[in-house]
Amino acid sequence: MSIPKEAYEALQSIVGSEWISDDPAICNADTRGGAGAGIRDLNAVRPRCSIQPGSAEEVREVVKIANRYGLPYIPTSTFYTAECAPNRDNTIMMDLKRMDKFEINEKDMYAVVEPGVSFSMLQAELFKRGLFTFVPGSGSQCSVLANHLYCGDAALGWRQGLAYRRILAVEWVLPDGEILKLGTRSTSDDFFWGEGPGPDLRGLMRGNRGFSGGMGIVTKMAVKIFPFIPEKLVPQGIGPHTTFQLPEKRLKWYNGRFSSLEQLIDAVYELGKCEIGLVVFHVDPIFGYVARARGKGANVFWEEWTKAKETIDVNQGWLRILLCGFTSEKQLAYEEKVLEDIITAHGGTVRPSRHLDETNFQSADAISANFAGRRFLSVLYFESVDHALKVGRDGAELKKKYVPPLADTYGLPGWYVPYDFAHSCKEESLNYGDVDDVAILGALYRECRENDLKIGAYPFGEDPNLFGPKWYNFHEKLKAIKELLDPNNVSNPPQPVSRPSGGV
Amino acid sequence: MFRLEDYVEDARGCPRCSNCKFIEHIWVKSARFARQCPINVRYKFNLYSAPGLLHSALGVLSNELEFSPKLMDALYKCTLCGACDIRCKRNLDLEILAVIETLKARSVEMGKGPAPEHKAVAEKIKKSNNRYGSPHGNRLKWITDDIKIATKGKMLYFVGCRSSYVHTKIARATAKMLNNSSTDFVVSEEESCCGYPLYSTGQFDAFQKQMEHNIEMVKKSGAKIVIMNCAECYKTWKVDYPKFLSKSTDDMEFKVLHIAEYLEELVKSGNLKLENRVNIKATYHDPCNLGRLSEPWYHWEGVHKHFGVLEPPKTWRRGDKGIYEQPRDILKRIPGIEFVEMERARDNSWCCGAGAEVQDTFKDFALWTASERLEEAKAAGAEAIISCCPACEELLSEAVNASKDGMKVYDMVEIVLQAVSPKNDSGA
Amino acid sequence: MQIKRELSRIVGAENVTNEPERLRAYAKDYSLGEVRLPNYVAEPKGVEEIQEIIKLANRNRIPVVTCSSGIHFYGNTIPSQGGIILDLRRMNKILNIDERNRVVMIEPGVTWGQLQDELEGHEAMALIPLLPHPLKSALTSHLEREPMLVPKFEYADALLTTEVVLPSGELFRTGSACVPGFPNESAADGVNPEGPGIDWWRLLQGAQGTMGVVTWANVKFEYKPKMNMSFFIPFKNLNDAAELIYRTQRRMIGHECLLLNNTVLAAILTGKWPEEYEAMKGTLPPWTLIIILSGGPRRPEEKIAYEEEALREIAIESFVPDLPTSLASIPGLEKNFPELIRKPWPKGKTYWKFGYKGSCQDLFFITSLSRTSEFTRAISAIASKYGYPLADIGIYIQPLENGRVCHYECSFYYNPSEPRDVDKIRNLFAEAAKTVLNMGAFFSRPYGPIADMVYERAANYTLVLKKIKGLLDPNNIMSPGRLCF
Questions:
Q1: CATH architecture for residues C2-87
Q2: What is the pTM of this model?
Q3: String of b and e for B238-253 (b: at least 16 CB within 10 Å)?
Q4: ipTM of model
């Protein structure tokens, strides 16, 4: 199906001819997203045109035209998700990179961002002000706004929690083109708070897996930013050997080792109760091998990882802890002692680690996980710390029959990143394949999800049609809400009612 | 030999993470100067980026995509600065730049490229051995009486078209520096364009001819070291010549040096004294072809196995061994220079816009790219921007003239000459 | 009488009434709202009963107004169109305490006192607002997003997962509580509030019962510190106090942190009304910033030590001369104060908001700490206009989330038996609300007439909210007339 000439001309008059194109190469480049490619975009087709609105007003006008002519549209920024791949050929791809402005309110600790602002841009400006933001595991290049609409998870969430806790006021173009302002923005020009008024319509914005543009387009979002230390993180090195030198008296890494994951989990719970640390997570040993191979190549990684099979103990726990003296250096000294107390009490050992970081404050090495396989599909959960251990082990068991061709991770149960001082926790099982193994990754994913239903686990990124019938038929309600807000079904259909590639 | 088909796995392996559009995140110091891909910053569509071009390459190979007007536009606006390539290689093993370069060549093979302007340059090179079409006989006219050229020597100074015909002061300054350090060197009347304008526009057949000619010239001269002041020539000789010969740089019969490398050795060993004050607050612009793209070429033939493992293993060029510190070291030793660093430095350098002959066809875009760099220099507090490439100097100067903002633009050898020579000798 | 018979069948005759005396108890509260009688009061014991009542209400298009607390302040439980009062006080069980995940599952009828007492046995405390009434439902506080006294966490509310009867009568569970087998046979522990589908819990919060009936909720609790050190820092100037809050919060100092003017603090500390009140107030500075440093489970004294040192440094930098650890007028208070504010108001004692004149109207909103002075001046100007003594205005400022914003609460005390007083307060309140709304105050929890003002201004928000409400409650039976419905 094509885009009617009248529609195209109308779109062109909104953004100007420079910012719209139906050139086949432009459209072709917008056919495929990032994470989940080959798995979540099996029905991907080349869109009909690509447009770059420069403001919320232009976004709104484009959406209205899309509604008039029944043209699906999909908003993207980094486009690092396959869930934004078009599955209908008369789709308008709405690339929001031109909208890259942001403002920082230092005193009240929030930043108002447009979709084109990346984490590295924001983080660099925040560091100048003794503040920081929470850089996700997908990397600093990701869009701040889009990531907050997704899950926003990374190790820095030990104190700060997940993205749903970090969104303040919002300006949102609904699927039908109406503008909705949430939080303080609903009654004033301010962005400092996100709740309500009254029932909080932020509830419609992202759910448990983000809507991938299926519920309209958020054009401006205030996100929380957090107090940090006055000392600077000093960048060093030339890629691939870049890192931050941490101010040792205020930021310090530790490695904890336990002979069992159960001990580790117990320690994590107590660390949470004692409220110490800036980062706490159980690291999957594969990350260590990836880090050591960076700059040397996949060959080196595979050589070492293959040897590792003899020595890896899947029940052992490796904990990484970053302590931060927010209040003062003495806080760090205090937390060191408490850390030692706790880890020892739970049968572990702890020692300081190198005072460098290239992973958490600017997630520069996120994508290096692809060393272990050029395609990566995580099976993700955000629930309790105990839940993480259970589903991680189940996932490792289920994976066995898919190895090979999937990468052998020796039964390791993934990595756990607790949030909110161990009130909740991410579990991410690490499934690597090559470019041609995507179908197998998809099969493993589906099997994990079926297991989730059996054991009463709570996965991130659930397929509504698979889980809905067992989860109080939420899929019907979601469908009703989608129909209410998107009566013409043009906002990245069929999201979020179902996933375009059948549930993965 | 260096064909698009050799890089299919690299194109397929792109995870579309978009790291290639940003400088190394650890080094981002401000939002303003966080990005590094000129075409993506300017045009923003995903096609105008490494992932977009890689995806296009796959489309072309599978006959699902033609060389449409926008594809040609994106492809030929790409300055081949290599920022995407080495940024990707920070974490992954993918040859991004090779895909783009060979895609250009494919467009030429299929008769879609290059632009008429590029074809015209190719004609000029063919007829006159230089990019300008100026008489070949004038190539050595830059030599003045006070410059000593040896009749025989181990070192051949390859001047390059720009310095031979237009930026002759750079050629003179280079030659005088060599004289000053008592280094014997020869030049060749048979010198012909290095071929960069041909390679970078996908005209591989014509490039091959230039390469063969120039290598023969060196052989005839008996030189074992070829020294040059132009970053484009440097990278072409050091990387692209062995590439096209299916050899590694180290297997070539001569060594390729940039004047910055050589001068730094001289300065460190005390054989070149930087004594005169040069009072200027300056920053250094890393040319792409001298910095991140200048590592030796390692020839590799093999197969891609599962998970991207290569058989045999390959040595990857990740940009960390480029020529970054030598020019800095020299400049910082010159009394009077207040050296300031731009935010995007070394492997994070923002391309000046001169690469891949973009300015021949897309002057506005090239000037815009250069003006971005000037903004960055100003933000660093610099009064002058110094580089090691006449192409960079040329375009940056043009951008300064267009903006009328007074920033001075120099080649490093001009400044070094001031630091060693009697007053007022800048090589002009 | 058919309805009453049906209700009796569902909950038992002894748990249903339409006696005028009983109905009148629900017809008004401590707000300035109009008196409106319900038709029935029903007290269910469990979720199935609630479901049946809701379905009955739908069939007959009778409104349902839910309440859980034994006392109400904002008018949201007064039925504007008659109907059934669903009083959930019988559902008062603490269903589960999960020490590992620091989560407690409570029914609506659980009061703060009940909750805190139970958690005490687990070395824990829930994050309580400022001295809630002993009859106040803890779950309701969480649903209504009442501000907590501890701003050091990066969350301002502790609600996680819930079970809810939707306006259709359908049962639903929000967040990870929706998994099959929850809570006893599932891998999930009910700690993730997100989803399923949309973030339901957000629609239930601030809803004043219009989106369904929550039958239990999982809420967070935290470690209850055993060792504390309280500071009662006097200020003449509100801006100076706000600045100190900014600085200390930025460096994550303190457990509880709250700022009270002398009117409010005196009301809290007065033992005997009215004799002691004026004297107490006279001894207090205009503003008292209360910061409680608390030790953790391990090495508590060391934690307090480094925080105290940092607090003193900041005080010096901020030209704050005094950091008293006690109140001169109440020696020994510092020992008991943490315990005092970690519990609700004691039973049997006149509620601190009523001690002065019998009642008060609270005007509260969210704003930035830096604007608190500005709002205080504006409100004071209006109070003066109505002849309300400025010294009688109570102000409580609660920083939230490390000082990112604050809950600003302004109390106007008045005598509810004096009609002229009531009228004055009603008009003063309305004008003050309108003025601060125009100045940018954010009423995240709009009650009564404020809701009208807010939803008129937030036109598009109102439109979408109504659409959602229409979807979930097509017969508009849940608390009609509340918010914008």
A1: 2-Layer Sandwich (3.30)
A2: 0.96
A3: bbbbbbbbeeebeebe
A4: 0.96
